[in-house]
Structure formats: C-alpha cells, structure tokens
Amino acid sequence: MDRPDPTSPTCSRAASFPDDDHFHDECGVFGVYNHPDASALTALGLHALQHRGQEAAGIVTFNGGTFHSHRAFGSVGDNFNSEAVINRLDGDVAIGHVRYSTSGGTAMRNIQPLFADLVFGGFAIAHNGNLTNARTRRHELVESGCIFQSTSDTETILHMIATSDYRKVLDRLIDALKRIQGAYSLVALTRNKLLGVRDPYGVRPLVIGRIGDAYVLASETCALDIIGATYERDVEPGEIVVISREGIQSLKPFSPRPPRFCIFEYIYFARPDSVIEGRNVYAVRKRIGQELARESHVDADMVVPVPDSGVPAAIGYAEASGVPFDLGIIRSHYMGRTFIQPHDTIRHLGVKLKHNANRAWIKGKRLVLVDDSIVRGTTSVKIVEMMRAAGAAEVHMRISSPPTTHPCFYGIDTPHQDQLMAHRMTVEEMAKHIGVDSLAFISHDGMYRAVGEESRNAECPQYCDACFTGAYPISLVDQEGNPGPAQLTLLSEA
Ligand code: AMP
Fold first, then answer.
1. Ligand 1 within 6 A of 268 CB?
2. 359 and 404, same domain (yes or no)
3. Is 0.85 topped by the overall pTM?
4. Active site residue 460
5. Residue % of the chain over a pLDDT of 70
6. 309 lines ligand 1 (CB under 6 A)
7. N or C, which end of the chain has less CB nearby within 10 Å?
C-alpha cells in the first residue's frame, strides 16, 4: 500500500502513550554545506525524501550573517516551488526536514528545522526518529524554568543544548545527547558548522555525500541521486560528523552499542532505489519475496502485488516460484492516502477509490497477493473483497514482513497495540477475518536472510525488529514513569 494521509487531523497515535501529545515522526532530513545553491539543493533533496513525510516541510539556511527559515504545511513541491522562496533562503549552508506526524491543531510550531538563538549564536536542528525519554527530560526542563514553544521532541534537545553547563557547541550537543534516549538521526546548523548525528544504535539512516566541494547529509541516498551528489558513506551509529571549513571531522562520544538499524526501513519505509549499509533496498525487498516463495509456496496462476509497496517482493516471489507476475490491481495515483484516516468508513472508502481490480486478468485465476505488511488489516480486507468480487478463483496472501505484533516507539507511526491485527489474532484467525484461502508471513529468519544474515540472532538481534518481536533495544523510559503533563498542549493557534 502507499503511505498515510498526514493531513488527517486525528491521525492514529503510537500505542500506550497515555496522554500522548507529542509527535511520532516518520521524517526525512537533509543538509548541505558550502554550496551557492544550498536552498535549492535542499528543496530537491527533500523532494526525494517526500515519502518519509508529507505533512510539512522546512528549510533553514545561513548566509554568514543571518539565518533564514521557511517552514510550511504541505509537500515540498507545494512550498518550495518559487524562485522567491528559494532566493530568500540565502546562504551556502542549509538544513531541511520533511515530516509526517500525528499532529493536532498546534502543529505549526512543530514544523522543523527548529531554530533558536542560543548563547553561542544561532542554532537550527532537524530530527528523524523518536526519543523515548523526551517527556521525562522535558518535565525536568519545564520544572527548571524552560518555556517550551512546541510539543516536539526536537525542542527538548534544543533546550538541553541551551542549558548545558559546557561552553562549546559540540560539548553542549554531546552533553545533551548523552542525556537523551531513543532513535535519532539529526542534522544541525551553527554559524560555522553543519552537524550530523546518528543515535548509538543507528536506528534511523543518515548518509554523507559530496557534490563538488560541498558536503551533503541525507536520510537516504535517493536524495543524493536527485542532485547528482556522490555517496561517500553512512554516518555510523553513535557518530557525530562535524562539517566545517576544515573539512569533515568524526566524533564518537558514546560507549559503543550493538547496532540496531530499523529493519522496517528495508521492508517498507525507505525508497527502493536507496542504498542503506551498502544494500539496495529494492534488492532486499525482492529477496524477501524470494524467501517467501520458498517458505510458503502455493500453486497459483498469478502473483499480484498490492501497489505500490508490494511490488518488489511480488517480483521476487514470482521469480522464485515461477508463477507469472501480473498487475491484477491498478492504483490511482491521484488519490489521497488510506492508511490513517479519522473514521473506518472513510478509510474503507479511500481504499476503494484508490485501487481497482484488473478484472479481465483476475477472473477465474488463483492469485497470490503480495503486500509488505498487515497493520490493522483494513487494507487486506478490502483488497481481498475486491479480488473475490472480480471473480478470482482463489486468493492467497503473502506478506513480506513478519506479523506486526508491537508498536514502534522509535519513529515509525503505528497504531495502539490493541489495534494491531496480529496482536489480537493468530495467523489462522487473521486469514479467516481477511477472507483468504491461505495467509503466510515471512519468517523472522527469512527476513534476516534477505538482508544477508544467516538467521536472526536471538541473543542480540542484528537489527531493530521490535515491531515484529517486542524486543525493544532502547528502554522506553516515558512508558515506565509518569513525568507529568507537558506544556502548551491546549493552546490552539489559528
Ligand atoms: P492496514 O490496512 O492497517 O493493515 O495497513 C497496512 C498497509 O499500510 C500496508 O499495505 C502498508 O503498505 C501500509 N503501512 C504499513 N506500515 C505503515 C506505516 N507505519 N505508515 C503508513 N503506512 C503503513
């Protein structure tokens, strides 16, 4: 399926955040240093990262004297499409952000990059991920007198930098980062530096690129491709890269931890043309499809992807099974998103409007439907109904991720656990509910084989797979304590 409708005012919230007023972002970040067209390159980079967040976009630049900012709701194309905007964002350094959040009415103040005039000068920051102790830290900061303007985790980092006892920017940043927990890939801008950081577990991606004499930071390599930048390397888990007139410097201030990159980035979230940890995302998705075919073969006439996210795995499935791949479902690209809508009725309507059965091909055929995940199950129910109504003889469903049994607290928006179909039902019950002749998910080991591992290491998993296993590598501090209410949640803005 495609991605959620971020404009929905009552988007679903991550599970178990009881009075949850903060945001669980699926975001993309970008930064460029030392390029005369910094803002234009950043707009292009963000455009390539648009799949990571469609609710809002922002860019902050610095021209040696002044910081400039433009932040707005909507897509990059809608907001950074005029010469006037790009030219006003003057300077040869820039950072940018695209966000998807579970936003309420006060979200304008949460659009990133956030900027503050700190004791050492201007500082802009943009974040992809989710902090697991942000509310706890925020409560402490509020108690000590900090006045928060937004409900974003990122502002907590900003206040911790502002209130650090250290003098130098980098020492303040490290001090702040040592006191936060969670998943984060950050880009930040000071008066003379572009900074990039990945959390010690490296849950979210961040890569370094070059274009001429300029340095680029981006969530994914597809954002380097769009501007013709070359990929240098990934920022390593726990690494801070400092880009300045002196070149690039690498700091590793944290005690090393076993890396836990988010495996769901490979399955669904990242763009298929991106390369992560040296692996092409599309190739991984195809390999998952091949594994699925080996693990749960079924005699069929046609492999049908649920577009768009099921396509690479369906191609892999078809290759390995010898069953022909065909487009049995046609997707309209002119519709809004279906995943998160305020009411079930609208969600259902959305699916119908967006997908249509390719009847002439489906009638009388035994189908293997391939999708990347089942979350609430809404999509699967409607798609299967559609296939039956179009005359499919049999409908078998194959899912290129293991059952999603747990919510993500590290930056991928998921519903409350009790809304996760795989949490509430066995695979057999799910198959019955969805109305398929058979249902199978990739096994944990199969998924690990697709990313080049022999199997999942149960003692110390090579990836963060908490949404499929409940093995959360980073402690969920805010879930355990009760840090009290956050500020400003009831202040509405026009
Ligand atoms: P559901 O209809 O609730 O079962 O959602 C499953 C569909 O949503 C799948 O087809 C996925 O492509 C898509 N999906 C899975 N995870 C997410 C996510 N975190 N955000 C948006 N869409 C998602």
1. yes
2. yes
3. yes
4. no
5. 87
6. yes
7. C
